[in-house]
Amino acid sequence: GKANVSNLSVGKYKLVEVESLPGYKKLAKPVSFEITKGMTEVLSLKVENEKLDKGSVEITKVDKDSQKVLEGVVFEVQDEQGKVVTEVTTDKEGKA
Fold it and tell me: What are φ and ψ of residue 44, in 5° steps?
């Protein structure tokens, strides 16, 4: 997407990504730029984000004592901030 910022005074600035889209890595470092006196052209910055690496997890839920698989157990998958990413339920084989 595109974003425009106007009416910046002459000076040095940093563009800091506050939040990234789901599935993308947040920028690790701010992007620095400068507005100089007499600047007549619009400064264009291209900021690229990397997609997050994807992986899979298989869960098997079993009773601690009998080791029988347990169907219908609901798990939440949460990100580092505790936000629920998805919810899964174990099947008749105890897998989710």
Answer: -110, 125
The answer to whether 45 and 30 have CB atoms below 8 angstroms apart is: no
pTM above 0.85, yes or no: no
Which residue has 């629920």 as its token pair? 84
Q: Rounded to an integer, what distance in angstroms lies between the CA atom of residue 10 and that of residue 60? A: 60
Mapped onto helix, strand or coil, the DSSP state of residue 13 is strand
- Buried/exposed 32-62: b ≥16 CB within 10 Å, e otherwise: eeeeeeeeeeeeeeeeeeeeeeeeeeeeebe
- Angle of CA points 84, 3, 46, to nearest 5°: 90
pLDDT tens, 34-65? 999 999 889 999 999 999 888 889 999 999 99
**Is the pLDDT at 23 greater than 90, yes or no?**
no
